Amino acid sequence: MSEALELNRARWDELARLHGQDDYYDVEGFLAGRCALSARERDEMTAAVGSLSDVDLLHVQCHFGLGTLSWARLGARVTGLDFSGVAVERARALATASGLEARFVQADAQRLPGDLAASFDVVFASYGVLPWIADVAAWMTSAATALRPGGVLVLIDGHPLTQMIDTAEPVRFDFPYQGGAAHWLPSTTFYADSATRLQTTHTVQYPHGLGEIVTAAVAAGLRVTSLAEYLDAESPQGRQKLMVRGQDGRWRLFLAGQEIPIEYALHAPLP
Ligand SMILES: C[S@@+](CC[C@H](N)C(=O)[O-])C[C@H]1O[C@@H](n2cnc3c(N)ncnc32)[C@H](O)[C@@H]1O
């Protein structure tokens, strides 16, 4: 495993231990029956797939399973995949606690285990996905390999434009739009709880522009049928200092008075 991957895995192991002790991940609400998915995640899935009954779904970068198990509650047969052993252990425990059937696999999303090939009707990933990935071409190839012909990749993530922005007023950028180069970023705080200081001191993140993402999907054999860019979001995904919350409860990001896209959603079936 590369040094960068190992560093990121240590960070996500640490976060997977902590998450759920904060208000960000509502584990109690989930166990009481609440759905952990955003309206956008559910709407995009409905638009791409329709009903989830009799659907085999692979949730890539599933973290500790709240979203994966929510898809199970909505009728899918689910497999969650994450490179964090702590996240996978917690996800399995959450499946047991919630009485939901699910399989969780520890693996690098860029190197899918062979036994998952051609096994899924949907590959899903959301919110905090590709900035952690060095090799988007390998990630897309993994997604395409996991799908059965006719299956679809549904990817929802923070817009790469938003990733660039350090402060909105004044406008300051501290991250490139694209190119995929590794950026070693010092940080000891995290999005779910800004008060806790982490033991891991760095992460490595990678800028991938929308053109690079779409091109990687097509090169992996997927057919891109839609790419939506969204100007609003249900959650600021930890970037509330940059965003404003409107009277409709939605979060938006303004630069010099203009709204910029903060999320995107890609649908890409395997022919
Ligand atoms: C921001 S979280 C995804 C959040 C998820 N949508 C949720 O709300 O729970 C990113 C996840 O990606 C995982 N991850 C990062 N790099 C990975 C890789 N190369 N392979 C597999 N999982 C990875 C992390 O362990 C973490 O669980």
List the helices and strands and how they pair.
Layout: H1 3-18, H2 27-31, H3 39-49, E1 56-60, H4 66-73, E2 77-82, H5 85-98, E3 102-106, E4 120-126, H6 136-146, E5 147-158, H7 160-163, E6 165-167, E7 172-173, E8 183-186, E9 202-205, H8 210-219, E10 226-230, E11 244-245, E12 251-252, E13 254-255, E14 258-259, E15 263-269
Parallel strand pairs: 1-2, 1-4, 2-3, 4-5
Antiparallel strand pairs: 5-15, 6-7, 8-9, 10-15, 11-12, 13-14
This protein binds S-adenosylmethionine.
User: According to CATH, what is the class?
Assistant: Alpha Beta
Tell me the number of strands: 15
The total tally of domains equals 1
The largest beta-sheet arranges its strands as: 3-2-1-4-5-15-10
Give the low-pLDDT segments: none
Bound ligands:
S-adenosylmethionine
- Residues in helix, %: 25-40%
CA radius of gyration: 18 Å
Q: Mind describing the biggest β-sheet? A: 7 strands, mixed
**Amino-to-carboxy terminus distance:** 32 Å
Order of helices and strands: HHHEHEHEEHEHEEEEHEEEEEE
Shape: globular
CATH topology: Rossmann fold
Named CATH architecture: 3-Layer(aba) Sandwich
Mean pLDDT: 94
How big a fraction of the residues is strand?
25-35%
Which structural class do the helices and strands define?
alpha/beta
CATH H-tier superfamily: Vaccinia Virus protein VP39
* Helical stretch tally: 8
